[in-house]
């Protein structure tokens, strides 16, 4: 059942890097904003506000929107299993015609998967724009676009982490 106008939608995807959690944690703390900047293919970096371009091919049509990313914070926590967890909270929204695109509030959580692997967990929430029409569009195609966009962003972040830590990235 599609969400009502007041309900937000969730997207979540996972990946991992063959690197110890502590190295990924240190990298996010020292260079997390820049990693997101490079992962979204923009040269200009700002301390807390980034302009990026996310693009996605949907069939024969390329859907693209310039977005502004705001990194809200990076925190260290202890997960439910007692393992360390690092969370980078951010938002992104369209820089132009923002009323036609959803605003995403998201978190990238990283935590040990094994002694030499780190899980990347990207979880976001958005509310479809344009009221009832937007909810209908989201139900037919919009949610798939959101999922694919979040997955692409996560893969780009993963590849950037591997590049920064000089680890082979393998297939993307």
Give an overview of the whole structure.
Helix 1 crosses helix 2. By secondary structure, the chain is an alpha+beta fold. 28% of the residues are buried. Strands 1-6-5-4-3-2 form a six-stranded antiparallel β-sheet, covered by helices on one side. It has two helices and six strands, in the order βαβββββα. Strand 5 (104-114) and strand 6 form a beta hairpin. It has one domain (9-164): Alpha-D-Glucose-1,6-Bisphosphate, Chain A, domain 4, CATH 3.30.530.
Write the layout of secondary structure elements.
Layout: E1 9-17, H1 21-39, E2 49-58, E3 61-78, E4 84-94, E5 104-114, E6 117-126, H2 131-164
Antiparallel strand pairs: 1-6, 2-3, 3-4, 4-5, 5-6
The structure class reads alpha+beta
Terminal Cα span: 32 Å
Looking at CATH, the homologous superfamily is START domain
- Helix content class: 25-40%
Strand content: 35-45%
Provide key terms for this protein:
172 residues; alpha+beta; Alpha-D-Glucose-1,6-Bisphosphate, Chain A, domain 4; 6 strands; elongated; disordered N terminus
Short description:
This protein is an alpha+beta fold. The protein contains 2 helices and 6 strands; from the N terminus they run βαβββββα.
């Amino acid at each position: 059942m599609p969400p009502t106008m007041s309900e937000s939608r969730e997207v979540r995807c996972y990946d991992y890097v063959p690197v110890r959690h502590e190295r990924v944690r240190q990298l996010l703390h020292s260079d997390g904003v820049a990693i997101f900047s490079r992962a979204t293919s923009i040269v200009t970096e700002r301390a807390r506000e980034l302009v990026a371009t996310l693009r996605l091919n949907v069939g024969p049509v390329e859907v693209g929107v310039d977005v502004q990313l705001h990194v809200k914070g990076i925190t260290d926590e202890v997960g439910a299993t007692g393992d360390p967890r690092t969370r980078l909270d951010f938002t992104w929204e369209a820089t132009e015609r923002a009323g036609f695109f959803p605003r995403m509030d998201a978190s990238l959580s990283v935590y040990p998967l094994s002694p030499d692997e780190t899980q990347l967990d990207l979880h976001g929430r958005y509310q479809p724009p344009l009221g009832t029409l937007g909810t209908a569009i989201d139900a037919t195609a919009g949610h798939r676009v959101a999922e694919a966009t979040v997955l692409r962003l996560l893969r780009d972040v993963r590849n950037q982490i591997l590049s920064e830590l000089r680890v082979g990235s393998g297939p993307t």
